[in-house]
Amino acid sequence: MSNSHLFLKSGFPRAPLQNGVGRYVCQLQRLTLKFCKNNGSSRGMRDFIENHLVDFAKENPGIVVYVKPRRHRAPVLVGEYLNGDREWLSVRNSTQTEISKWIDLLKTQNGSSSSLRLRKMWHTDVPSIQGPWTPFLLRSPDAHNQTYPTSEASQPLDVPQTATEKLIELFKQQQLEADTVLEQKRAE
């Protein structure tokens, strides 16, 4: 086993606050394009800014785009997300199509979760403290010895009786009580 996980942040996978339940909220909050006006490695970034940046900004009004020229530095894309994470990508010697693909990747991510060592492969917002559900959870133990189909096992235990069923049961109890009273009078 390698020790590369020692330098990664560790945590649990987290979906960003029920994103997509009501409507989708883009997690990319800010995009900063840093480039050099003269350097050859920034040619693709300059072409992207000249040809595609205005269209990108119109298509994505929820993302704030900053353009930051810097002298004698390699071009960089910096994405800042709603959860506070920052993703930094070097796009040195990239073409404008490659840069647009990198920007689309930043737009569809929800932060730097790729540099996070996951402690568990699953996550739930409301964990169960009662254990996993099974088909036999609410069944009577007597149902295991019955042969099917039976009328007793057709109704689950957690379903309440209907009002009609309660009335029929009360009527039968009253009839049984009346019959026992008549038998007692006959016996006397």
Could you write a compact summary of the structure shown?
With 188 residues, the chain is an alpha/beta fold.
Blueprint (SSEs and pairs):
Blueprint: E1 9-11, E2 28-35, H1 43-51, H2 53-59, E3 64-69, E4 76-81, E5 86-90, H3 96-108, E6 116-118, H4 163-187
Parallel strand pairs: 1-6, 2-3
Antiparallel strand pairs: 2-4, 4-5
Helix pairs in contact: 1-3
The total strand number stands at: 6
Q: Largest sheet, order of strands side by side?
A: 3-2-4-5
How widely separated are the two ends? 90 Å
Going by helix content, strand content and strand pairing, the class is alpha/beta
Q: What is the CATH architecture term of the domain at 14-118?
A: 3-Layer(aba) Sandwich
Using the alpha-carbon principal axes, give the shape: rod-shaped
CATH topology of the domain at 14-118: Glutaredoxin
> What Rg do the Cα atoms give?
34 Å
Mean pLDDT: 82
Order of helices and strands: EEHHEEEHEH
For CATH, the homologous superfamily of the domain at 14-118 is named as Glutaredoxin
- Contiguous low-pLDDT stretches (5 residues minimum) are none
Q: Could you give a short account of the major beta sheet?
A: 4 strands, mixed
Domain Ribosomal protein/NADH dehydrogenase: 37-110
Subcellular location: Mitochondrion
GO cellular component, one term: mitochondrial large ribosomal subunit
Protein name: Large ribosomal subunit protein mL43
